[in-house]
Design a protein that fits this description.
The structure holds 2 protein chains of 2 kinds. By secondary structure, chain A is α+β, with helices and mostly antiparallel strands. Chain A has helices at residues 9-16, 38-44, 61-71, 76-89, 105-117, 135-152, 163-169, 187-194, 206-217, 240-247, 264-273; strands at 28-29, 32-33, 45-48, 123-127, 155-159, 172-177, 180-186, 198-203, 222-228, 231-236, 254-260. In chain B, α4 (75-106) packs parallel to α8. Classes of the chains: A alpha+beta, B mainly alpha. The A-B interface holds A 11, 14, 17-21, 29-31, 35, 38-39, 42-43, 45, 47, 49, 51, 53-54, 56-59, 63, 66-68, 70-75, 78, 82, 118-120, 122-123, 151-155, 157 and B 1-6, 9-15, 19-20, 23-24, 26-27, 30-31, 34-35, 38, 106-108, 110-118, 277-278, 280, 282-283.
């Protein structure tokens, strides 16, 4: 789930976890209404909030999970075994008896994930799980989440500002803005709808690049995006052959051509800026 | 959102409501103990501060030779019983509220509310540790005051336990009502402060309520403190208690109050949280 600040991501998470009721409409988790079946919904979800203040920082990792497991109603014998398994899974086995305040930021993020996974929830709801950790720790955390989802057969709803992570997950994305879903579906479809293909054309000399930019700027269905020295970037929906045919020999000195994809960050910004009156849905 | 078909991986859980409540009670009891001992100096100082009034009134009692009728013949014993009554009620009044404050200040409340514990269990479960701590203070106070010469009537202990339990439930009821307001207002608790101050004056902790002017004496009988303190004195303290309400009347009043007020307070707490959900104030503490 992505969206700018104030888009409604955290509010939606609160609705799904039963902390808020929707002002309009209804929300369901596994077919259960989050307003009327809040208690039942809370039994199905594993939630990790964005910051780590919800951890019992003066308690050990093990004590944190035991406390959570008891509130989950897990039988004691089963709980001890499951706590050890979960701590090992997130790589906190050796730190099981270390108190929360002695953990690094990355370890706290893992402990939050462990708490969300402990009772094998059917749905994981993770609010910016990687926001406070470095890129390597974030990568490892996402790998753990993917592994847990696969092994437990859970669904996961993750919000993130790290768009490279969203791409790396190769999964469905929900683009939220101003409380409305602007897009819901996979990233490839998103690109098909919104991303005009781009070509990066490198010339032998800057002057040839400048001349080509003027020629291409006159063409329909071709937008000159950027001229950077001897490199010209154009956005176009027509094929390369058609461009050269229309240019009628005026494009000289081409050294190389490659297709470039719009970075996801720019693509999402473009969607939000050009947002239509009606929300788009896949 | 896809849902899991891996039902075999679902975690085993206790399903019976009582068993769930006991598990939640245990969890919060252990949490309270661990939090308390993680600040050892604060914990010890809190325990010691419970005993300061005992020593103050031990010396005050040497100056008071002839307490008014209805207060008991031994001023020190009667004041100690009054202090015990206040401690029992305060344990109920403040226990849940203090745990709530801690949960709010440390950022835990949101997670507690997301756990699959019925929200109406929280006032009970979160009160476990403060109640245990309060009862420990009561028992140690009794021990110390006996050493200092307090004269308790041993035959009154069974009824005193009953009155104490009813007082605790009455305190928990008022404390839960107060917390129901606090969870929405997210601020301090001026109503409870005012109530506690009023109880100190009107419930006859330090002097008999017979000494109060008539209109204020009526106010005394609106406070559960008065019934608990009078009841405890009647069954535990030596002296003449011909005036005031009889022991059965005091006990039955407490029974009725507790039986009505605590379930009502739990219901109000649940309603308050549901209202908080609609307002969107149950997170971001």
């Amino acid at each position: 789930m992505v969206g700018p600040n104030g888009a409604g991501k955290s509010t939606l998470f609160r609705v799904l976890t039963g902390l808020n009721t929707p002002t309009t409409g209804r929300a369901f988790v596994c077919g259960l209404d989050t307003t009327t079946k809040s208690h039942e919904v809370r039994r199905l979800i594993g939630f990790a909030p964005a910051d780590d203040s919800s951890l019992l920082l003066r308690n050990t990792c093990r004590e944190n999970l035991v406390f959570h497991g008891q509130l989950q109603g897990m039988p004691r014998k089963h709980l001890q075994k499951r706590v050890n398994e979960t701590l090992d899974f997130v790589g906190l086995g050796p730190a099981a008896d270390r108190v929360g305040i002695a953990l690094s930021t990355g370890m706290k993020a893992r402990l939050q994930l462990a708490r969300a996974l402990l009772h094998r929830p059917r749905v994981l709801i993770l609010d910016e799980p990687t926001s406070s950790v470095d890129p390597i720790a974030a990568y490892e955390l996402l790998e753990l989440i993917k592994q847990a989802v696969t092994e437990q057969g859970s669904a996961a709803l993750i919000s993130s500002h790290r768009l490279e992570e969203i791409e790396a997950l190769h999964n469905d994305v929900v683009l939220l803005d101003d409380g409305l879903i602007r897009y819901r579906g996979d990233l490839d479809s998103l690109r098909r709808i919104w991303d005009q293909p781009r070509m990066e054309i490198r010339f032998h000399a800057d002057a040839e690049c400048q001349r080509a930019a003027k020629v291409l700027d006159q063409m329909h269905d071709v937008d000159v995006v950027e001229v950077d020295g001897d490199v010209l970037t154009v956005a176009t929906s027509i094929g390369l052959g058609k461009i050269f045919s229309q240019a009628n020999g005026q494009l000289s000195g081409v050294q190389s051509i490659q297709e470039v994809r719009l970075p996801l960050r720019e693509l999402l910004a473009k969607i939000l800026i050009e947002r239509a009156e009606q929300p788009i849905q896949s | 959102m896809a849902t899991s078909t891996h039902s075999h991986l679902q975690t085993r859980r206790r399903e019976h409501p009582i068993s769930r409540l006991i598990a939640a009670n245990n969890a919060f009891m252990v949490l309270g103990w661990r939090q308390a001992i993680s600040y050892p100096l604060g914990f010890v100082m809190t325990q010691l501060s419970n005993f300061v009034p005992i020593f103050v009134f031990y010396f005050v009692a040497t100056q008071v030779n002839n307490p008014s009728q209805g207060f008991g013949s031994d001023y020190f014993t009667s004041v100690v019983i009054g202090l015990l009554g206040v401690k029992i009620l305060d344990t109920g009044l403040r226990g849940f509220g203090l745990q709530m404050d801690m949960a709010i200040n440390r950022g835990w409340l949101e997670m507690f509310l997301v756990e699959p514990v019925r929200w109406r269990y929280l006032p009970i479960a979160m009160s476990q540790w403060p109640v245990a701590q309060g009862l420990f203070a009561v028992v140690t106070t009794i021990g110390i005051t006996i050493l200092l010469g307090a004269d308790f009537n041993p035959s009154g202990i069974p009824l005193a336990l009953l009155i104490g339990a009813l007082g605790l439930i009455a305190g928990l009821a008022i404390g839960t009502l107060s917390a129901a307001v606090k969870v929405l207002a997210k601020s301090g608790d001026p109503i409870l402060h005012l109530y506690t101050l009023a109880a100190q004056i009107f419930s006859g902790v330090y002097f008999p309520i017979n000494d109060l002017p008539e209109p204020l004496r009526l106010l005394s009988y609106l406070l559960p403190h008065t019934y608990v303190i009078q009841g405890l004195r009647r069954v535990l303290a030596p002296g003449d208690f011909a005036t005031g309400l009889s022991t059965p009347t005091l006990i039955w009043t407490l029974v009725i109050f507790s039986a009505l007020a605590y379930p009502f307070a739990i219901w109000v707490w649940g309603r308050s949280l549901n209202y908080g959900r609609q307002l969107g104030v149950l997170s971001g503490y």
